[in-house]
């Protein structure tokens, strides 16, 4: 009979680290690809945009020299909101 050698026992696996950046990217990608407007995320995003009056800001900006900034502003708001939403849910 062979004796067990403690030095040959595999060490326990380290826990899988959550890749938060990839999770946020994947979440945003799925959201943008879906037509689901009944999700809790969509409702929270709408509330965020309306409560801060961003629609009015963007509409006014559309008729100025800064109209090209509207899309960038929207992307920034969406990215920041996704980040905060995911972190709050974890």
Terminal-residue CA separation: 50 Å
Number of strand segments: 0
Mean pLDDT: 87
Low-confidence runs (pLDDT<50, min 5 residues)? Answer: none
Helical run tally: 4
Sheet/helix structural class: mainly alpha
Shape: elongated
Q: Helical amount among residues, as a percent range?
A: 55-70%
Measured by DSSP, the beta-strand proportion falls in: under 5%
Give a short account of the largest sheet: none
Any idea what the radius of gyration is? 23 Å
- Succession of helices and strands: HHHH
Could you give the topology of this structure?
Blueprint: H1 20-33, H2 40-51, H3 54-61, H4 69-89
Helix pairs in contact: 1-4, 2-4
Task: Give the tags.
single chain, 90 residues, 4 helices
Structural description of this entry:
The chain has 90 residues and is mainly alpha-helical. It is 61% helix and 0% strand. Helix 1 (20-33) crosses helix 4 (69-89) and helix 2 (40-51) packs across helix 4. The mean pLDDT is 87.
Give a short synopsis of this structure.
Helix content is 61%, strand content 0%. The chain has 90 residues and is mostly helical.
